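Translate sequence into structure tokens.
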Amino acid sequence: MSEITQVIETGPFEEHPAHPGAGAYVIVAVALCILTALEVTVAYLPALRPVMIPVLIILAIAKFALIAMFFMHLHYDSRLLSTFFLGGLLAAFVLFIALLFLFVYLDRHRAIIM
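Result follows.
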């Protein structure tokens, strides 16, 4: 049997594991709702004002990871696709931090330049 015939008979997606059922997506949706409620709580508690930004960033990263893994199916894709996705994400994050430092530097030295 040729390879083309085998792919047609078995289907091109036989090697992928089965995706989760509706229950897993409901659990992820509940977890996202809980994380959102925590974000709102952190934003309105005056006692957490000194650590509000880092806590909100950590919660946002957790929500992003859940969405990327389950709703974008990265949890079930090959490592290569996940690596490309995370590589692009890392490059965007590094660019964001570099621009942030550049703008802070330029803002502090604006009086010297002018």
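Note: The longest helix spans residues 79-108.
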